[in-house]
Design a protein that fits this description.
mainly alpha; Flavocytochrome C3, Chain A, domain 2; 3 helices; about 20% helix; extended
Amino acid sequence: MNKIRTILTLSFVIAGLSGAMPTFALDSLRGAAIEKMSAQPAKRRIDIVEGGIERSFEEQPPMIPHRIETYALNLRQQDCLNCHSRARAEAENTKPPSDSHFVDRDGNQLERLSSRRYFCTQCHMVQIKGKPLVENTFEGLE
């Protein structure tokens, strides 16, 4: 056993010194090697839905029915709240964040958006018009 371990260790050291370390590629659901997937994805048509997108299951976060690629979502700026804040939602004819977005991890009610709910795209997604990557037989709410 020690002999095999020594041979493997030496082969990796020699390969590392010669710059010939083996590379491994995994296939993704799209059929491409994962190492090649770091490139910018192809542009897709955003599924813009007037009035919003129906939810598929209870407690599903609402989907985003419009473009957001130019929105700033970082520690200093949160463009979603330009239209969706409690103060602006009625005037903009949008939905404000639910009450759950104003509760901290200890259950305390907050006046401002909780830091746990600040990055909208962590749960809310823009929908694209495209073919599914894999077969899907899911049936949502009716």
